[in-house]
Structures are given as C-alpha cells and as structure tokens.
C-alpha cells in the first residue's frame, strides 16, 4: 500500500522557457564591467608623436631661417696679401654679426688682408682693406714691442707715431727724453697680435723713405709708439 510519504515530490528545476533564458541573460549582462576601448593608448602615442614631429620641424626651420651665407677663408692668408677667389669660400652661419655676406664676393676679391687670416675665419669689414697694402711709396715693417712701448688694445687700422727712444735699461739724458726723434709721424697698423707676458707683435705700413730707419731702430729695441686719432687732430 502506498503512503503519502512514499510519493515522490517533484523538485523544481530550471525552467527551459523563453522567459527563463531571458532572465538569466539579463542577470549575466548586469554583472559585466563596462568595456574600455583598447586603442586609447595607441591614439595618445600617435598624437604625442605628431606633436613632437611638429616641434622638431619648427625648430629646424627656425635654425635654417636664422642662418645666412657669408664669406670665410679657405686657408691661411698673410697680412698684406691680395685676396683671390681661391682664398674664399661660402659658408652658412647664424648669430654672427658684422660678417661679410656671400653676395659681396666680387667686392672682396682683389682686396688686401689687413691682418693675418687663418683657415675657416669668417671675414668682417675690419680684416680686409679695399686698397692693396703696401701701396705705392709704402713699405711693411714688423716690430716686437714690450708693454711699456706700445699702447694696449692696438688693432688693424689704428694710426700711430713711431718714436726713437733709448734702449731698455739706458737712462740716457734729459734732452733726448724731452725731444725724442720722430721716425714716422703717421703710420697705419696693419696687424697687431697681443702676446701675454711678451708685449705686442705689430706690422706697420710706413712711408718708403723711413721704412729702413723704423726697421733698424725696432731691431735694436729702440722704438716706442704713440697712438693718434684716426681722423687726425684737425
């Protein structure tokens, strides 16, 4: 005889109905995290690359625009030498003031080096002279003078008077000191190299008729210079 306790009570299982599937799918979607686009990092890197490229291009363009074509020396050119086209080259520089532009090449050819030029030196108006040196009736004389016999800061183009003075260590007499002999009244400095602890090495353009005296007195250590105004005293 079958009792009520022996009867099996059906156990409710998942309902295989459209409504049941919809409920499970809805619960699954509600637990999912929001998706983040995976390409955000790539986009940021691309934008950064473009910005850097633009900045670099702008900097290069600025550097290029600041440069100008100027004249420079190919090799060493001694003071007083005539400058030829073989001595010159065109280079690009930036931030260099008072340089001679490449467009002035024809004007520079045939001029004279007012000072000794070294290879690679950029030309400026102060290192070239329009007229050949020495000119007709002129001579070039070199002197080595200590600090007590030449003004400091002499440079190419300065005008000096050349005096005959007693040699170093010779007290001489008052008359000679009060009225020194003038060897060359108006002389142009062609080049001046200031050597620390050793005075000044000068190249002067002097008149032909006094060149020998200036050279001989200079070799004997009996020359002193007095700087004159460029335009004279008048």
UniProtKB/TrEMBL annotation:
Keywords: Membrane, Transmembrane, Transmembrane helix. Pfam families: SAF (PF08666). Residues 1-33 are annotated as: Disordered. Coiled coil: none annotated. Signal peptide: none annotated. InterPro entries: SAF (IPR013974). The chain crosses the membrane at residues 40-61. Residues 68-129 form the SAF domain. This is SAF domain-containing protein. The lineage of its organism: Bacteria, Bacillati, Actinomycetota, Actinomycetes, Propionibacteriales.
